[in-house]
Amino acid sequence: METKIWIIGSSSGIGLELVKLCLQSNYKVIASSRNAKNSKELLQLKLIYSQQLELLNIDVSSNENVSKSVDEVFHIFDNLDICFFNAGVYESMSIEQWNISNFESMINTNYLGAVRVLKPLVNYLEKQKKEARIILNASLSSYFGLPYGGAYSASKAALVNLSQSIQPELLRKNIYVQIVNHGFVKTRLTAKNDFDMPQLMLPNIAAKKIFEQLNKPYKFEISFPFILSKFLRLISLVPYKLSFFITKKFLK
């Protein structure tokens, strides 16, 4: 039986690599991004996998566009097994560099973008006669706010909190929501960082770790790499006096 997946945020990085892995495993894929139909990489894949891959533009900042995009997905596929939400923007800023538009952009895409997709998507998925998964790409930074990353980690923490909130409701509808909390991945976004990134991963490695979970028994959180995830989880659990003693060492 064919697995049908919709990957939102698929023109580069983890999303693009996940598209490749799914196609290689004979999944039927809808690849979406703001300019998916003009993406050189996705168009090349379309030439190779013409019967498996569909390209669909989506603007997750627009309520109307998202609603139309979800309708189009279920026009292409009569049902859906997996939706992977990977749309995201990122800026690292000190307080002196704060720009309210950057805060708004990250909340609008990383968090509200997912909210816009979830409402119409769930309406379709709950009518299916089979279970489905919604996977939301968050970040290990959601565990604890780190210097210069507050705007980004706040948007991801909101996404995680929302997922925790809706998990019991969606489970009753046979929809399994999952979050991915991953560390630093070498992409155009992290290229903006001017600090050392421990356990920096290539996008294909991160995508492989996510792909490996698609056919495994359900668990709410997918997290990696191991050492960094355990370190940041520990920071979130110890008393603030100790956690702030640790995080202040990250200041430039």
TrEMBL record:
Cellular component GO terms held in the UniProt record:
cytosol
Query: InterPro entries attached here?
Result: NAD(P)-bd_dom_sf, Sc_DH/Rdtase_CS, SDR_fam
Q: Name one Pfam family in it.
A: adh_short
Which GO molecular function entries does the Swiss-Prot or TrEMBL record give?
A: oxidoreductase activity
Q: Which keywords does this chain's UniProt record carry?
A: NADP, Oxidoreductase
Name the PANTHER family for this protein: DEHYDROGENASE_REDUCTASE SDR FAMILY PROTEIN 7-LIKE (PTHR43391:SF14), RETINOL DEHYDROGENASE-RELATED (PTHR43391)
Q: Which family does it belong to?
A: Belongs to the short-chain dehydrogenases/reductases (SDR) family.
- What is the name listed in the Swiss-Prot or TrEMBL entry for this protein? Short-chain dehydrogenase/reductase
Q: What is the lineage of its organism?
A: Bacteria, Pseudomonadati, Campylobacterota, Epsilonproteobacteria, Campylobacterales
